[in-house]
Each structure stands twice: as structure tokens, then as C-alpha cells.
Amino acid sequence: MSSIQPSRDKAAGRLLREWRLDRGLSPEALSWELRRAKLQSVSGKQIRRIEAHGVIPTPRVMFALASYFDARPSEVWNTALRVAA
Predict the structure, then answer these.
(1) CA separation for the pair 16, 54 (Å, rounded)
(2) Helix or strand or coil: residue 56?
(3) pTM for the predicted model, two decimal places
(4) Cα–Cα distance measured from residue 80 to residue 41, given in angstroms and rounded to the nearest whole number
(5) Is the pLDDT reported for residue 68 higher than 90?
(6) Smallest Cα–Cα separation from 51: which of 84, 24, 26, 83?
(7) Which listed CATH number (3.40.50.10540, 3.30.390.30, 2.60.40.10, 1.10.260.40) goes with 2-84?
(8) Longest Cα pair distance anywhere in the chain, in angstroms?
(9) In this predicted structure, what is the pLDDT of residue 16?
(10) What pLDDT does residue 85 have?
(11) Domain parsing of the chain, residue ranges
(12) What's the pLDDT tens digit per position in 11-56?
């Protein structure tokens, strides 16, 4: 048996984009806010990839983004491991 983690979560990307826009932030401004809050260094380009393509970030980046928006990573990403037989 092997476990496979999905490589994309477009719903999470759409949710993060919505939250970011609700706060009036560009991807670069969000990146700056995360660094200022000492949560994690995430580039505007990386934020765009997460939002546009559903790229699943590292756990640290997941935590930083979710924390910034007062959420838990599990509220944003549905990345439960899939078990392949």
C-alpha cells in the first residue's frame, strides 16, 4: 500500500484568493504582511501559484497563510492522504 497526497487543491486556492481580495491585498502585499507578522516568507509569485493553480504549499506556508486569515490549515486545504491499494 502506498499513500499519495494530492498535488493540487483548486478550492483552497480560490478561497485564499477570495480572502486576500476581501482584505484589499495584492499577492505581493500579502507576502509582505506575512513577513511583517513573522509568520513565513512566501513570495507573491508563490501565492499566485497557490491561488491560480491550486498548488499545495509546504506545511509551514499552509500554517502561515491560514493563520494570517485567522483559520486553521484544515479549514483551507482538504489534503487528507489518499491510500492506493
Answers:
(1) 10
(2) coil
(3) 0.81
(4) 25
(5) yes
(6) 26
(7) 1.10.260.40
(8) 45
(9) 97
(10) 39
(11) 2-84
(12) 999 999 999 999 999 999 999 999 999 888 899 999 999 999 999 9
